[in-house]
Structure formats: C-alpha cells, structure tokens
Amino acid sequence: MQSQNNGRCDIGQAFSKESTIVWDAWGNCKPEPGSLDQTCLGTQSRNGKEVDKKGEEIRSFTETRNCLLTTDVVDGGYTIWGEWDDCSYKCYETTSRYRTCHDPTPCNGGNDCSDLGRDTLTKDCGPAAGQWTEWGSWSNCHMPLGVSGYGTGIHERYRDCTDPSPICGGDYCIGNNEMNENCRGKSMLS
C-alpha cells in the first residue's frame, strides 16, 4: 500500500485508517542460490511490518525483487562442456553434450557467447568397445594345501570391463580380468 501526500508518494510507509506498513531499506543484491547466473542478475529483499495506531506490530513480512549484481558491461563466456549423454539405450542414434553462456553471464549489454562457437555438440552412438577399470587390490597370499610354515603362495587381483561397458554390440575388453603372482606367506597350518 502506498499513500499520496500532496502529489508525493511515500515509499517507506503505507497508511490505512487502521494500520501503517513500515519498510526497512533494501538489502544487498546477492546471487540467487542454484541459479546459473552468478554474475549479473540477483535478488534483494527487505522486511516490512504492519503496525496499528498504537505502534504495536500486527504482522511482519518480507519482499524480494530482482536486481543487478554489477553495473559494469560484462561479456559472456562459456562454461566447460558437460558430459556426453548416455548412448547405451539409444544405439545408432545421436548423443549430445552442452555448455552454457554463464561463465560469466553477459550483463548490461555485454556480448553473448554467439561469437565464441557452438553451445551443443552431437555425435553418433554406435558400437563402443568396453574399457577396463583399474586393477583391484591384491588378495591375501594363499598357500598350497599341505604346506606348513613359510613358503611361496599365490595372490590375485581383478578388474572389470565396465569403464565403460561395451554398448551397442561393441567388443568386450581385450586381455584378462584376473592377474596371479607368486607371493611369500605363512601357512595357517603351522
């Protein structure tokens, strides 16, 4: 609510017959949490309260509005490329990856990213061979049956063909998924 006094508008207070609304000053302009734009547009808020004729508070509230984080002219820049979309469920179609013009966001008439190249890349999905994960840790040293005391045994480690898994009919990883080596150990029999 705003009132007119001799043609002037009083922004700090609004009046009615029964109550008055009093506003605090607007707070600082801050980037909006979760927004891609952290350099140009933000929000600011202020608190208000409605008071009766006796000055007692009836209710309080907050008002928020958009604001500029800077008055400078800022040219936009691209973010890094995102990951490729998953091809495993759309063999022989296409996949894409994207980037956005928010590093920084163009502001106050600054150039957008159109002169900096594309914001979307596409490629065909098709057979893709699997790749091995890193080798796992070595197992404990296993001694042959019947050996007592210290001796030579075998331990092993494994890897999986899941980094990525073969898709769309692509080849399984080349090589073995298991590695064995001799090791020195002590038999549990002694």
Could you name the ranges where pLDDT drops below 50 across 5 or more consecutive residues? 1-11
Radius of gyration: 34 Å
The total tally of domains equals 3
Helix content: under 10%
Give the termini distance in whole angstroms.
Answer: 91 Å
The number of helical elements comes to: 0
Strand content: 25-35%
List the helices and strands and how they pair.
Elements: E1 4-5, E2 8-9, E3 13-15, E4 19-23, E5 30-31, E6 41-52, E7 57-68, E8 94-98, E9 120-124, E10 150-158, E11 178-186
Antiparallel strand pairs: 1-2, 3-4, 4-6, 5-6, 6-7, 8-9, 10-11
Structure report:
By secondary structure, the protein is mostly beta strands. The protein folds into 3 domains: 4-68, no CATH class; 73-126, TSP-1 type 1 repeat (Single Sheet), CATH 2.20.100; 127-190, TSP-1 type 1 repeat, CATH 2.20.100. Helices cover 0% and strands 35% of the residues. It contains no helices and 11 strands. The strands form 4 sheets. Strands 3, 4, 5, 6 and 7 form a 5-stranded antiparallel β-sheet that branches. A hairpin with a 2-residue loop joins strand 1 and strand 2 (8-9).
